[in-house]
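Support request from a user on the community tier.

User writes: "When I paste my structure tokens into the form, the page sometimes reloads and wipes my input. The last time it worked, I copied everything first. Here is what I submitted, just in case something in the input itself triggers the reload:"
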């Protein structure tokens, strides 16, 4: 077959173009990296507070002066800059899905147009319009190795009502649908700069079982959260290996601002698991009194152990135990007050922490009402109001269906809050005081939810796996871990 001159010329031109691309590809990589570094520097400059920009400029100028005075300093600095730019500009040469990524970003932009645009907006170049493009509003974006959006920083109009939770919720729902379902996202609203950052969060570990956590007396590890949410890590054992994970630490005691805990969730969400984990940690330095309002025997493993004062699952036993806890709180307060007035240290019997764990208090109140007995929640008021000074800590767990039956004292004095399992934004806001800044999973594992300590931020939370060791459906390794943490039973003294 004879090749036509036009086809031959086209082939020669394509070959020359490929050769030119091969020769200039390193330069393209460096230029791309310089552009990415410049964009990152611009975003850092915008986010830096104005009072810190002057010292940052001074530090940069001083560093440049020092490098300039060094022998071969400018040459080394230039080489280092080119190396960093080449590293940031690297990427696949062939088959780079730039068009596909641009199409995905344009789809996200068009989905936001009905919510960020107004018919009354008469500006010549609105940020969001049906014939607009995403380049003006998407300040930064990152894709994962699987081709999904992992991070997106966008600008929105100043007239958008970003102070209204309902308006924010609509935008978050649209972004979750367009960026990709099946993942959790964190939304950070910057009202001052009219910017919204969306970040896909990695899943929290669900394989951490109950164990001795590295914590000071009075500190309770409720669970684990994101690495950038807290400034602390604790080592945890994972089979034969050990790794550091960020915990959600609840501090109790006389100096605590959140002396008591309330956990709410759906059935099977892990509230009982949380109380069981708290009991195992509390037994290291204190005594525990357990009230099981559900009566299902979830705390039978604690009965008769050292440090466990009582495990009650009947209404009569619960009322007697709670009445004793109220008198014990008053006794501790009086003894501490006498010792303080006499200039003596507090007695040892009141210095040991006492934990009162109540599961399903609303059920107990309902049973007491039907039988004409005193309300158990009223017996908790003394421990809730004065427990911090007496080293008495109360931790309660209930379900959302019984939340309306919780008394005013429980709502007022439990400033450490936990929500487990699937919950609507209104339910989470009612318990935590503000809605979470992340989207929930469609299928949440047991022990997965959110925690807020006082007026602090809302953290994602995964409770350590702490099953009932007598439950045959639980994993053998997890049951063995719980049994290893249980204190020994006291040996009866023979006469």
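"...and here is what came back when it finally went through:"
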């Amino acid at each position: 077959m004879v090749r036509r001159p036009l086809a031959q010329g086209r082939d020669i031109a394509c070959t020359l173009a490929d050769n030119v691309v091969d020769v200039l590809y390193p330069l393209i990589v460096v230029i791309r990296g310089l552009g990415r570094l410049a964009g990152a520097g611009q975003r850092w400059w915008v986010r830096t507070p104005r009072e810190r920009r002057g010292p940052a400029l001074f530090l940069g100028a001083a560093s440049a002066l020092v490098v300039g005075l060094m022998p071969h300093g400018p040459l080394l600095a230039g080489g280092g800059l080119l190396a960093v730019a080449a590293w940031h500009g690297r990427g696949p040469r062939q088959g780079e899905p730039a068009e596909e990524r641009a199409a995905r970003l344009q789809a996200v932009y068009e989905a936001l147009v009905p919510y960020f645009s107004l018919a009354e907006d008469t500006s010549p170049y609105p940020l969001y319009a049906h014939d607009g493009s995403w380049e003006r509003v998407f300040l930064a974006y990152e894709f994962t190795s699987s081709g999904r959006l992992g991070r997106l920083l966008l600008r929105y109009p100043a007239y958008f009502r970003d102070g209204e939770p309902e308006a924010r919720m609509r935008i978050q729902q649209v972004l979750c649908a367009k960026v990709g379902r099946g993942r959790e996202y964190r939304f950070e609203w910057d009202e001052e700069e009219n910017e919204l950052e969306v970040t896909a969060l990695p899943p929290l570990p669900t394989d951490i079982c109950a164990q001795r956590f590295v914590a000071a007396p009075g500190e309770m590890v409720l669970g684990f959260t994101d690495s950038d949410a807290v400034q602390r890590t604790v080592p945890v054992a994972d089979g034969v290996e050990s790794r550091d994970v960020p915990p959600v630490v609840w501090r109790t005691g006389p100096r605590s601002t959140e002396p008591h805990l309330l956990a709410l969730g759906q059935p099977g969400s892990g509230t009982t698991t949380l109380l069981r984990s708290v009991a195992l940690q509390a037994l290291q330095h204190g005594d525990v009194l357990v009230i099981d309002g559900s009566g299902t025997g979830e705390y039978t493993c604690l009965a008769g152990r050292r440090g466990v004062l009582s495990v009650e699952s009947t209404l009569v036993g619960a009322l007697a135990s709670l009445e004793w806890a109220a008198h014990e709180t008053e006794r501790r307060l009086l003894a501490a007050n006498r010792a303080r007035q006499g200039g003596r240290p507090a007695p040892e019997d009141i210095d040991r922490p006492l934990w009162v764990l109540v599961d399903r208090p609303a059920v107990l109140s309902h049973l007491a009402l039907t039988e004409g007995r005193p309300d158990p929640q009223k017996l908790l008021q003394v421990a809730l109001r004065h427990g911090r000074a007496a080293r008495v800590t109360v931790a309660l767990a209930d379900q959302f269906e019984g939340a309306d039956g919780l008394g005013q004292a429980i709502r007022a004095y439990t400033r450490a809050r936990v929500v487990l399992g699937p919950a609507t934004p209104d339910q989470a806001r009612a318990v935590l005081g503000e809605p979470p800044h992340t989207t929930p999973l469609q299928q949440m594992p047991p022990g997965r939810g959110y925690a807020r300590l006082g007026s602090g931020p809302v953290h994602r939370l995964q409770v350590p796996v702490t099953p009932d060791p007598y439950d045959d459906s639980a994993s053998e390794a997890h049951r063995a871990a719980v049994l290893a943490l249980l204190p020994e039973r006291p040996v009866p003294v023979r006469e």
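Agent notes: The reload is a front-end session timeout and is unrelated to the input. Confidence is low (pLDDT under 50) at residues 1-18, 92-96. The chain has 14 helices and 16 strands. Escalated to web team.
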